[in-house]
Specification:
Radius of gyration: 27 Å
Strand content: 15-25%
Protein name: F-box domain-containing protein
InterPro entries: F-box-like_dom_sf, F-box_AtFBL13-like, F-box_dom, F-box_SCFL_complex_component
Shape: elongated
Helix content: 10-25%
Number of strands: 19
Order of helices and strands: HHEHEHEEEEEEEEEEEHHEHEHEEEHE
Pfam families: F-box (PF00646)
Largest sheet: 14 strands, mixed
Length: 418
Amino acid sequence: MPPRRKAGKGRRAAPLGGGRVSIDVLPDEVLHHVLSFLPAQEAVRTCVLALRWRHLWRYATGLRISCNAENEAVSAKKLRNFVDHLFLLRGGSPLDTCQFTLLHINDDNDDMCKIHLWIRHVLLCRVRVLSLDIRFNMDCWRTRFYMDDLPLVSQHLKRLELSALHLNQSFVDFSSCPALEVIQIKECDILDLDRISSRSLKSLSITGYCGFNEDHRIHVYAPNLVSLWLEVFYGRVPFLDRMPSLVEAVVRIDGMDGDFCHHADSGDCEDKDCPGCYGVDGDTGCVLLQSLSEAQSLVLISDTKMFIFRRDLKCCPIFSNLKALSLNEYWCVPDDFSALTCILEHSPVLEKLTLQLFSKGPKSNVQMKGSPDPTERSNVISEHLKTVEIKCEVVDAKVLNVLKFLNKLGIYSYRFQF
């Protein structure tokens, strides 16, 4: 507990002359929160401001511990001494947030062991939000900081942010984190994982150039998940277990290797030696779409060479709650539009369809909005569909082909925006 003063906790100082008000009029609890926004080194330096500030930093509700190229005064060794003394003097004071941003550190086993101990210490301080971004010097042979083999154990952790780490199966065992609701994984190696599992998880984001395994699929088990953002740029698309509470999801597949075949669009080239179609034992049934079928909003983007969505469409589920759907040109190839037709047929309450065609990003030079004619509406599309939005860089032959197909469904009367 903070040391008590005779004037009582949260004492207010007299306003300065001229009507100005000093920060010292704020209660201790507010100053503890304010200090949490400073880098830890700067927060500690406030101890010299006045007698009252001598111990305030010890009870800051957040810690921001950093070591990067812009902070040349802090070497890895000096940081280690500073953080060791910081934790010793803070003791077990509770933390709301803790952020480790350790860039360009040396590949030193003692330093790595220290960092692992620091992480375990803040967990004991009942931290609720933990952010880890730890990177080696560019000349180190390791590309990622390896997390230790111990599982996370915390009754209080609610949000976990992981960047540029090598994750192992023990570390992502979240069974001992019953309050964990949000996980963000960015630019991490997850090659060694078999499973990401959490019953309490509500939001999961795996983005950036994360490395998935080429020889097996990671299983994601999060039955209470509400929001999913999944990007696959390398390796196999993960298998999603049932997500009955899912509301929104973004799935982007631009993978190299993994779910790709030179001979078949749907992963069924019948060549048993094909590593793309038959490289995973027991790989049958829906990988993604079945678990996404309860969502109200979906964004499904894929490189046209990847087959996983087309394979899933062979056992396409009913998207009984889906109201907003965004797709890219993957769903309009080949010219028979079979993939687009299939997912529209299985979306009975769809209200808005967005097609982002042949564009690199969400912003496009041309935007068109159309709507179905109630008298000529095709049975393929939902009777609730009100808006069809097409975004593209230029209206070329490929885009015109898509417009002709939509016209056959009774969707026209476009309004152009440039």
